[in-house]
Write a structure and sequence with these properties.
The protein has 100 residues and is an alpha+beta fold. The protein has five helices and three strands, in the order ααβααββα. It has one domain: Winged helix-like DNA-binding domain superfamily/Winged helix DNA-binding domain (Arc Repressor Mutant, subunit A). It is 59% helix and 14% strand. It has a three-stranded antiparallel sheet with strand order 1-3-2. A hairpin with a 2-residue loop joins β2 and β3. α3 crosses α4.
């Protein structure tokens, strides 16, 4: 049996990102950003029909875990996916749940 080297730091980082996206609303945000590439907080909460405070809360979690990046443009902050592999995870999740 081959000796497999485990990088605990990488595993912890991956687990942290997975925990960040393990909420249904955060998955919805990621799917939205996967389709639109860049959206403001207002566009996100209006599209998902949620409160602005709720959208901001979920966006901050995703940003702090390195899932999203943000850029201020005038008075608005626009969010986008930071890691392209997240969209691949969403495709996999959709396949597992029968949605394509």
């Amino acid at each position: 049996m081959p000796n497999i080297e485990i990088d605990i730091i990488k595993l912890e980082a991956a687990a942290s990102k997975l925990r960040a996206i393990s909420h249904p609303m955060r998955i919805a945000i990621i799917e939205l950003l996967n389709e639109e590439k860049k959206l403001s907080v207002t566009e996100i909460f209006e599209r998902l029909n949620i409160e602005q405070a709720s959208a901001s809360h979920h966006l901050n979690i995703l940003k702090n875990k390195g899932v999203l990046s943000s850029k201020r443009e005038g008075k608005q902050i626009h969010y986008s996916l930071k890691v392209k592999t997240l969209s691949e995870i969403i495709v996999c999740i959709n396949k597992c749940s029968g949605v394509e």
